């Protein structure tokens, strides 16, 4: 796949995710939906990273909403640069294994009496 096809596929992926939350067909979504849209694209932003993105994409004329034409280029850049990626599964598994030193596949939780 060449770069042009990759960019087109990426734009379609972003567009499709955005459109799921565009209930009126106006190419705009509620600003509160942006975190969910970004996470649906495989990103794991912190709250501060999410706020930085919102500052870039929120519609200045219609506060509380984000238009696709502002969101698309910002999100495409984030995905192309592999920013906001979550931890690797192996790293998460290693972290969980620290709570299961005997390798039983369970964790004991002690509750106060």
From TrEMBL:
GO-annotated cellular components: organelle
Segments forming domain EF-hand: 9-44
Any GO MF annotation of the entry: calcium ion binding
PROSITE patterns (UniProt xref): EF_HAND_2 (PS50222)
InterPro entries xref list: EF-hand-dom_pair, EF_hand_dom
Keywords for the protein's UniProt record, in alphabetical order: Repeat
Gene3D superfamilies, A to Z: EF-hand
Name this protein carries in UniProt: EF-hand domain-containing protein
Originating organism: Cloeon dipterum
